[in-house]
Amino acid sequence: MKRVAVIGSGPAGLSAALALRENGIQPVIFERRDLPGLKLLASGGGRCNFSNSLDVESFAARFGRNGLFLRDALRVAPREWLISFLESQGVKALLTDGFYYFPASGRARDILNAFLRAAHAELRTSSEVTEILTADGSVSGVRVDGEAIAFDAVILAGGGTAWQGLGTSSGLRLAESLGHTIMKPLPAVAPLLIREDWVKALSGVSIPHAKLLLRSGKRILAESIGSLLFTHEGLSGFSALDLAGDVSALCDRTGDAELLLSIRPEWGRAEWSSELERWRREGGVKLVRTHLARHAAHSLADAVCALSGCSEAKACMLSAMQRETLLSHLAALPLTVSGAGPMEKAMAMRGGVSLREIHPATMESRLVQGLYFAGEIVDLTGPCGGYNMQWAFSSGRLAGCMRNTR
By the 8 A CB rule, do 178 and 368 touch? Predict the structure, then answer.
């Protein structure tokens, strides 16, 4: 019988082990920690947002220019397969806000237990693989705690460097030792680091629906709309987390970059101009910041007005210059972003094993026969909202199918 080692017990490794079991192969999972699936258990605050309602094409598009790489994995293991499997194990899926899928129980552990139970794999915890052995360009085994163990294939699903206390670079080192190119690991799905002190002074203030644009020169590189939270270091919340990977990549190349913030995404200069005119007509003696506080927290309204030079201006007394500056800031307030993270605060890693060196139809290495990859370890990262978890489960299953590419 074919022997296959799975390195890593996260969602990708568990899904790979399940596929192997279904194909008549007894999987052996090596986990360097004392317990399996710790990242899975920590995801979504312990609730695990494991997928979302997007169709395959829209889902892949959220991964950017490399999104085409996902298609084979999503066809083999789409959302419908994942939900059906979980429900077959008694884990009912719950769709929230018409978009996010969680276990109805609200417990990530139920997902972990479902895969462990169904895969029925041999699980070796506290066992770190320090070397993947090869012979004549093919996998021949692994070395664990100094012991060489023969295997016909290895699925490397060791995750990435993100998450304090949970991330690791050991899988990346294993891939690199076999000749694979490692794209620089950077924080993704992480808080944004903002230079402006007034942003940090608003720590704790939130906007339920904000828009952030990442700009390089005149080009808009990325856009995100969602909740926003001011922190003592910058910005968090969905709209900030979604941009973290793009911000990390840009700032790694250029240093500081520019963000544009809109506190009402559906309004541009024209809508705000009409609103300012309404303030002038209907409450002209009131301060502009008092009017603006109906659209945002008082402290944020005060900060925007201070930046626009109209802190003490009444709505009926705005000068032309004050009005133009305020309109510009309301439509797109410029911020200076220096990066994202640090990696310990990131929920995902951007970077990893180069996609050029992996067959997308099988997840097998183009360099070493019998070596497969799955999940976060490869250079493919989506935003928050179930994208990365679904990718991990889908890519793990595709790898575990062990399709022949040669």
Answer: yes
Are the beta carbons of 371 and 224 closer than 8 angstroms?
no
β-partners of residue 7 are 30, 156
Query: What one-character-per-residue DSSP string does 208-269 give?
Result: EEEEEEEEETTEEEEEEEEEEEE-SSEEESHHHHHHHHHHHHHHHHHSSEEEEEESSTT--H
CA distances 261 to 24, 111, 131, 191, Å, are: 53, 37, 47, 15
Asked if residue 214 lies in contact with residue 247, where contact means CB atoms within 8 angstroms, the answer is yes
> In this structure, are residues 352 and 378 in contact, taking their beta carbons and an 8 Å threshold?
yes
If pLDDT is split at 50, 70 and 90, which confidence band does 1 have?
low
Summarize the confidence of residues 104-127 as an average pLDDT: 97
- The reply to whether the predicted model has a pTM over 0.70 is yes
pLDDT, tens digit (0-9, with 9 covering 90-100), for 191-207: 999 999 999 999 999 99
Which residue segments constitute the domains of the chain, with CATH numbers given?
4-186+348-400 (3.50.50.60), 191-340 (no CATH)
Residue 165's pLDDT is 74
